[in-house]
Amino acid sequence: MGRERVDRAKLREQVGTAGVMGALAGAALAGGRGARAAVTGAAVGAAGLGAVEVVSRVRQRPGEIPALWQRIATSGALAAAAGWAGARLTGAGPVAVGTVAGAAAGALGIRPHKVALGPVVGAAVGGAAALRGRGSGTPASVLASAPWRPRAGGAAGRVVAHGLGSAWRPEGSAAADAGLSPAAVAARGAAVAAGAVVAFRVVSALVFREEQISLLAEDATTEDLPFVVPLEARSAYVGTSYVRDLAGVLGGTYTADAPGVGIVASLDALAGPGFDPAEVDPRVREFYEHTARFTLDIEPRWRLWVRPGYLLYRALVAQPLGQANVPMNQREVQRGMRSRIDTITPPPDKAAAGEIAVRGWIRSFADTDDPIYVGIYTTYRHGDRGYVSVGFPLPHASFTATLLPRARPGGGLTLTSHADDDAGTDHPGHYLTYIDPDTRELTTLGVHGFAEHLDVYVTGDGRLRAEHAFAVFGIPFLVLHYRMDRKP
After folding, report:
1. How far is residue 183 from each of residues 41, 88, 269, measured CA to CA in Å?
2. Does residue 161 surpass a pLDDT of 80?
3. Residue 84: beta bridge partners?
4. Which residues contact 174 (CB under 8 A, 6 or more apart)?
5. Helix or strand (DSSP H, E) at 330
6. Other beta carbons less than 10 A from residue 101's beta carbon
7. DSSP 402-438
8. Which tens digits make up the pLDDT trace of 86-139?
C-alpha cells in the first residue's frame, strides 16, 4: 500500500512536470497571435503533454523507460521553449534556428553520424519554413497584432519600438526582412525548433536502429540490473581511499593492500559456454585469483586523433575527480605504478566467515599515490554463464563494465564487452548509473558506443602479459599493454 502511494505521488509529480513543459511549449507556439492565444496554447499544451505522460507512465513496466513517442514529444516541447527564447533574443531566421536546434539534438546523440545528421535535418526544416513564409506572405493577423514598422529608421523608430515593449531590430535583421513582429518571430522560432528536434529524433530512430547511448532503466532495483555495480562515491573526489571510506558506510572490516587476494575469488565462477576454467593456464588463473602477488607495469598507446581531447578531459575531469586518469605517455609510465587490492569483509552475522564483500583494485602512480583508477571487481552468474562486472565509482553514480569470458588459445583468457546476441548474452556492455541516495533505486544508461577487449596470455618465454583495447563508436583509440610479474 505504501509503495502504491509512492507511485501515485511520483506519477502526479511526473504529470505535473510534463504539464509545465507542455504549457511553456504551447504558449511559445501560439504567442505570435497575441496574449489570449498564448494562454489558450498553454492550456492545450499542458493538457496534451500531460495526457501523453499519463498514458506512457501507465503503460510503462517496472524498470522500463518511457516509450519512444513520449520521449520525442517531450524533447519537442523543450525545443519549442528554447527556440522561442533564442528567436526572441536574437531575431534569428528559421534556417538558423533549425540548424542550431538540430545540431543540439545531434550532439546529444553523441554518435558522430548523429552529430553530423542533426544540423542537416534542422537546416532542412528551417529552410522549408522559410520557403513557406515567402510563399504565403505576411499574415494580416500578424501585422494587425503588432502596429509597428520594422523598417522605421532613426531615433523615432527605436522609440516607437521600445514603447510597444518589443525589442528593436536593426534593418537587415531576420525580423525586419520578414516583416514580422518580435512575438511572431519568436513563435516561428518555437515551431521550427520543435519541428527540427522531432524530425531529427524520428529520422534518427529509423536510420540508426542500434542506439549508441540509451536510457535502459529508471527507478530500477539492483535485482533488476544484476550487471550493474551499484556502488557510488559519496563525495566529489574518488581517490585511493575510496574502499576505506566505503567500509565506513557498508560496515565490515577494511583491509588495505590485502596480501594474496585476487580481483576474483575463483575463475570457476565464470564457467559457461565458450569458457572452461580448467583449460586456463595456471599462471593466468593465479593472476586473477591472487592478483596481489604480482607487480603491474603499463604501456599506453593512444591514437593520435584522441590525444588533444584526452588531455582536455584529463585536466578538467579525471584529475579533479581522482578516477580514470590513464597515463598519457611513456614519460609518465616511468613514474612507476602501484597496484593493490583493498577489501571489505562483512560482519559474521551477514556472511560466511572470511567472505570478501568488496574487492577494490586500486592503481596509482608510485611517486605520489595519485589515483590512476579505482575499480570494484565482482562476478555473478546469469543462466548458465558467469560474468565479470567492474564498477568505477563516480559522484553519486557508477560506470560499470560487464565483460563476457571466452577461452583464448594457449590457455589464455579473453574478456569482452561484446554481447553474443545469438547465445542470448545481452548483459555484456557498459552502463552509467545514477544511484538514488535515499531509495537506492537505479537509473541506468546503456553506453553501447563504448567497447573494450582484454586478452591475458602467457608468452613463449613464460611471461604473463595482457592487451587491453578500447574503442568508441567502432573507432579504436587506446591499447594498454600490461606486464605482470611475480613479486620477489
Report:
1. 14, 7, 65
2. no
3. none
4. 91, 92, 93, 96, 185
5. helix 330-333
6. 32
7. EEEEEEETTTEEEEE---BGGGTB---EEEEEEE-TT
8. 999 988 899 999 999 999 998 887 777 788 888 999 999 999 988 887 655 544
